[in-house]
Every structure is written in C-alpha cells, then in structure tokens.
Design brief:
single chain, alpha/beta, Ribosomal Protein L4, Chain: A, 6-stranded mixed β-sheet, 7 helices
Length: 205
Amino acid sequence: MKLDVIKLDGGKAGSVDLSEDLFGLEPRADILHRVVRWQRNKAQAGTHKVKTRSETSYSTKKIYRQKGTGGARHGDRNAPIFRKGGIYKGPTPRSHAHDLPKKFRKLGLRHALSAKAKAGELVVIEAAESEGKTAALAKQVKNLGWKRALVIDGAEVNAGFAKAAANIQGLDVLPSMGANVYDILKRDTLVLTKAGVEALEARLK
C-alpha cells in the first residue's frame, strides 16, 4: 500500500510503499487484547504485601488457659480471627508476568500497525529532526493537528527532536526497538519516520 510522506512543516515529501504483511492485515481484537494484557501484567509491580501472624507485633503468650473459661480455645492474639491479627493467605510480593510466544508478540505488533493504518491514523514523515526548541516543534505539531501522537523513529531518536518533544503534552517519541502494541493503541495518531518504517519492516519481516 502507498502512503504520502510529509515533512514536519506540512510540505509533501513523496510517497512510501508499506508492506501489506505489516500494514494491510485485518486487525483482530483478540490478538491485540492478549498482547496488551501480557504487556501490562509484565509491568505490574506486584509489591503488595500483608503481615502474617508471625509478623504482627503482639505477644506470643497464650491469652488465657485452655479449659474452663467457657470460651473458645485460643493461643495468642496474632491469630487471623482477632482484630489486628495476622492476615491469612493475603498477597505477597510476586511477579504477575506470564509467557507469550515471541511469534505471537510480533503478530500483535503487526496487527497494531494494521489497525492504525486501517483507521487512517497512520502518518509517515520524512524525518523527525529538530534544533531542540520546544516552541518551534509545538507549533508544527499543532499545525499538523496531532493531539495524542506517538512518533517512532529508526534505530536512534534524534537528540534535538527528543529534547524538543520532552515538554510537549501528548507527544511521545520512541526508537523502532521500543515500538510496542500498548503505546501504539493508546495514542490517537501513529507517526512513523521513513527510517522507522524501514526498521520496523526489518524487525517484523
């Protein structure tokens, strides 16, 4: 499929041929859902923790004698049955990550790119380069109509562009190896540089 290439100032810069294997698939919500779920679970901190009866700060002395009180038998006040006692089978630090085959993760990225192309939310620019001035880049972004955009460059992001984009709300910049399904779907507009297109095609072929 062919797509027009533009410059950051809005001018035309020819066109580019996009691979049908990457940008021409029929997007499948089930594949995208599985990959996003894998990403978010892997990123989850899993640091939630409760105290067990061995960690609460009460005496370990038996609270009253075993028999003759007319009440239930108890040991110490750390038991889960008591207020402020230990928690039984509560959460402990752990990883929430689960496995997902590499081939499936690549497939998910292809479907994410195809979803953006099908929705008309894919833009290809000649290059993401700037002198590092936020005001100038912000004006260009406003003129292009990008509100929530993700810019994916080649192997490395231009230092001046990254610096200028750092303070612009709703504009994220990633190198091609950082491209992922969650970030692509989260933004309204996906912006690829020509170098980014080549790098993604090499990565996902």
